[in-house]
């Protein structure tokens, strides 16, 4: 990739206090406490390059709009560890894909997020900036994105994300690294696509065990479930998929405790939830009512995928295990 030039400088941030306070009002960013370390810090007007204080990382407004938050979930930590990236290396579309996958697992399959299923379906791709009449450049931020493997497209819902993320990388700010769960910010730039990003679940027996889940996903896709619908529904339910939560989506029954699982006890309006979904995807339904046709668990009327084989897989969901070095471990 010798023809690819180095990234442009960061530049001043557009994430003013007012912008971040709006994220707080939208329940997408924690409120700064009256005492103690702030949950987030807006860069000074004269800052042109991130230099986060000790205990903070660099985040972006757009990532929080797409389903990321703190404390970071085990799945989010696993993504950082497996792809060997920092938070700023995730593109907004990468966060959208990961958030949708978590919500599909919990809210439609009725299982905890499944690492083997993730790497069976998705591969990592290196994003290189390629603006018209400009030289190709490595991305200062957002060099990692995710795509469905071409041979697995029939096993997953329609999930093409927006092609318009213009200006997103200017919305950088400092985010408190809760319990040091996220990699320390080192200003890392992704310049190559490691072979590991393309690895999947290779043993035939292991792939065969995923067939029950991919069959269920294919059924949801045939019924018309799309990424737009998933995004609209998790926003309506006030769930941030990539946050460590007390309860998975399928256990959010009317009597369940809100704190630690939802950002509010009040559902987001259909209009606002649909608007958030529309900004995130490339394909949005002509009739917004289609977003609500397929119910997310545990809402009454959700599509039941229960069968003997499916129940066996649900009971054998691949868990995450903690390790001293990264805090996560996953089967590959």
Question: Helicity level, as a percent range?
Answer: 25-40%
For the biggest sheet, the summary is: 3 strands, antiparallel
How many discrete domains? Answer: 1
Shape estimate: globular
Keywords for this entry:
332 residues, alpha+beta, 3-stranded antiparallel β-sheet, two-stranded antiparallel sheet, 10 helices, disordered C terminus
Mind sketching the topology for me?
Blueprint: H1 17-25, E1 40-41, E2 56-60, H2 61-66, H3 74-83, H4 92-109, H5 115-121, E3 122-126, E4 128-129, E5 137-138, E6 144-148, E7 172-176, H6 204-209, H7 211-223, H8 227-236, H9 270-280, H10 308-315
Antiparallel strand pairs: 1-7, 2-7, 3-6, 4-5
Helix pairs in contact: 4-8, 8-9
In short:
This protein has about 325 residues and is an alpha+beta fold.
Walk me through what this model shows.
The chain has ten helices and seven strands. The model is unreliable at 315-332 (pLDDT under 50). The two termini are 29 Å apart. It has one domain. The strands form three sheets. It has a three-stranded antiparallel sheet with strand order 1-7-2. It has a two-stranded antiparallel sheet with strand order 3-6. It has a two-stranded antiparallel ribbon with strand order 4-5. Helix 4 (92-109) packs across helix 8 (227-236) and helix 8 (227-236) packs across helix 9 (270-280). Strand 4 and strand 5 (137-138) form a beta hairpin. It is α+β, with helices and mostly antiparallel strands and 332 residues long.
């Amino acid at each position: 990739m010798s023809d690819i030039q180095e990234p442009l400088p960061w530049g001043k941030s557009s994430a003013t206090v007012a912008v971040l306070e709006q994220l707080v009002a939208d329940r997408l960013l924690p409120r700064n406490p009256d005492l103690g370390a702030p949950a987030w810090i807006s860069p000074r007007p004269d800052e042109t390059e991130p230099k986060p204080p000790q205990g903070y990382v660099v985040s972006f407004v757009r990532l929080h709009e797409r389903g990321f938050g703190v404390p970071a979930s085990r799945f989010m930590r696993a993504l950082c560890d497996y792809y060997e990236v920092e938070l700023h290396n995730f593109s907004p579309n990468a966060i959208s894909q990961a958030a949708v996958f978590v919500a599909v697992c919990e809210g439609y399959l009725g299982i905890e997020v499944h690492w083997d299923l993730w790497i069976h379906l998705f591969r990592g791709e290196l994003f290189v900036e390629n603006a018209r009449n400009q030289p190709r450049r490595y991305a200062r931020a957002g060099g990692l994105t995710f795509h469905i493997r071409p041979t697995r497209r029939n096993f997953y819902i329609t999930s093409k994300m927006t092609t318009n993320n213009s200006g997103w990388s200017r919305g950088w700010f400092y985010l408190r690294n809760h319990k040091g769960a996220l990699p320390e910010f080192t200003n890392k730039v992704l310049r190559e696509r490691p072979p590991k990003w393309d690895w999947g679940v290779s043993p035939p027996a292991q792939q065969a065990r995923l067939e029950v889940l991919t069959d269920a996903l294919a059924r949801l896709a045939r019924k018309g479930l799309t990424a737009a619908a998933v995004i609209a529904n998790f926003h309506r339910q006030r769930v941030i998929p990539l946050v460590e939560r007390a309860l998975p989506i399928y256990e959010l029954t009317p009597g369940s405790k809100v704190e630690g699982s939802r950002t509010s006890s009040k559902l987001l309006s259909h209009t606002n939830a649909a608007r958030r979904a529309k900004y995130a995807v490339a394909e949005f339904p002509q009739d917004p009512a289609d977003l609500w046709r397929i119910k997310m668990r545990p809402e009454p009327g959700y599509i039941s995928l229960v069968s003997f084989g499916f129940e066996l897989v649900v009971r054998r969901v691949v868990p995450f295990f903690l390790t001293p070095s990264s805090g996560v471990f996953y089967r590959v």
